[in-house]
Amino acid sequence: CWERPEDMDTSRALYKITSNSPGSEVAAEAAAALAAASIVFKGVDSKYSSKLLSQSQSLFDCANKYRGSYQGSCPFYCSYSGYQDELLWAAGWLYKASGNKNYLTYVTSNKGWSQVVSEFSWDNKFVGVQTLLAKEFYGGNKDLEKYKNDIESFVCAVMPGSSSVQIRTTPGGLLYTRDGSDLQYVTTVTMALLITSKTFSAAQSGGVQCGSAKFSASQIRAFAKTTGRLHPPV
Known about the structure:
Layout: H1 24-41, H2 46-65, H3 84-98, H4 101-109, H5 126-138, H6 145-158, E1 168-169, E2 175-176, H7 182-202, E3 208-210, E4 213-215, H8 217-228
Antiparallel strand pairs: 1-2, 3-4
Helix pairs in contact: 1-2, 1-3, 2-3, 3-4, 3-5, 5-6, 5-7, 7-8
Keywords: Carbohydrate metabolism, Cellulose degradation, Glycosidase, Hydrolase, Polysaccharide degradation
Catalytic activity: Endohydrolysis of (1->4)-beta-D-glucosidic linkages in cellulose, lichenin and cereal beta-D-glucans
InterPro entries: 6-hairpin_glycosidase_sf, 6hp_glycosidase-like_sf, Glyco_hydro_9
């Protein structure tokens, strides 16, 4: 099933979301992707960038207005984390892409949705939005402190030596999150750690206190680079 659309030669069922059969996870995830893409294209094709941003805003409006999960009708790869993470994820990228303060108000008003987790995956986007908004916190938006605190807790959950670590490492030092498809989670966790370490460095933060252990930005970055270079079996 993992092949290019051009190569598919088997029947494919088509699913859609509507106001009566919502799927906020799907619409919001697509909105986040288009908003991020609009930033990439802004300097090279402003017309296309504006189109991407407009489509992103429409998708977000749909996801937020007709809230509901596609969990009940999805055949595979269902959502287990709910749709709040995707709504925050989309609003965060829309604020970054547009500068529209309404999206900043949205993530601030709904900061209670943010959860401390130890993964960043195709399903769970909390770490992604926390990474994104922690940078905004250090940029002066102090109402986003909840996201900054949650990304610090994420660091404590994955750094070896932390008193609250939740993820094991292999003897060779590779993060080991689960038995199946481990590397996809390793790569996303290490990406989040690298971005967070850069945020801490730019803000001249003193690092993260995890119980009796304290990790500086350089230590977080060093671990992310080390585990990101490893491949099983190690």
